[in-house]
Amino acid sequence: MQPVQLAIIGGGLVGASLALALQEGARARGWRILLIEPFAPGDSYQPSYDARSSALSFGTRRIYERLGLWQAIARRAEPILQIHVSDRGRFGAARLQALEEGVPALGYVVENAWLGQCLWQALDRDVVSWRCPAQVTRMEAQDGGYRLTLDDDSQVDCELAVLADGGRSGLREQLGIGISQRPYRQSALIANVTPSEAHRGQAFERFTDEGPMALLPLPENRCALVWTRPASDAGRLMGLSDAAFLAELQQGFGYRLGAFRQVGVRHLYPLSLIEAQEQVRPHLVVLGNAAHSLHPIAGQGYNLSLRDTLALAETLLQSQKPLGDFATLQQYRDSQQLDQELTVGFSDRVTRLFSNGEPLLAAGRNLGLLGLDLLPPAKRWFARQAMGLGTRID
To answer: pTM of the full predicted structure?
Structure first.
């Protein structure tokens, strides 16, 4: 294959967003971008009750507006108008409202298939080419870049390789990039459910002694459920009939949205906080879940990855040095270090605080929720974190 300036390994939401963020600048500079992805994107969007979704913060909307993509995404983006945070069985609760924060929505819930379709259609094939379905089986550092070997034994040389192949990246391990891992001893059960009452743009974060639960609004009055439980109990919930599962969900969540009438396919994922010990090397960047995988309950993971993606694109396009220059890549890493530390810390602390049934700690967090609802400065800080605006204003 002909050499390219930039190879993005992983053409999912993060990889495709990076290609889009670089597209205009790459065209002006004569860069060729190659996306390598094992799963071929569909030719058209297909609605599905069971579609997986992502929570996009208000800050992420701003990024996609800058990239000229938000108008397309918004056609199937369900706005989050209010977030209700509560602790089961206790009186403390906090309510965040878009109107109080002066924004049209605190965030949005978008099906991954729709977001991917919008991204893929926005890419200019004269600048961004695809190898799909294809996988990189080997990466070799060489003078001025990397040589990638694909699963059909073809090879391609690039000046900069971006590793965006997910949290279980085998290439990260192959390159000897270590990880820091803190298991939560929980699994996330993810499914779509339908309540009997209209959700009206409400999102719910409900904390229990067994683990937190999130319910996010989707189009067609569906809700995306993220229910974290101890691993053994999550496995038990997976094995229940739909009726028995909905009964337990009803008991855990209550009747704020009436009775749950339908549940789709359930998926189960073990949870850990995983951080790559290196995110940049000469001619190499680790991005997305390969760089940091967060607990899903706070909805921060994809939004942080997108902020990383925009910062990387801006740094590369502003640099006058050769693509892959280590000082340039380290500049990107330094620019995002505070955002990453604060966001990872916020997500981790919220998860651990609200997954602990110790009575004194439970009483303290209950008072904290009550105080959060009564103290405007604290409430605004929490809202800005939830909206992805805590460390950066675009």
So the answer is: 0.89
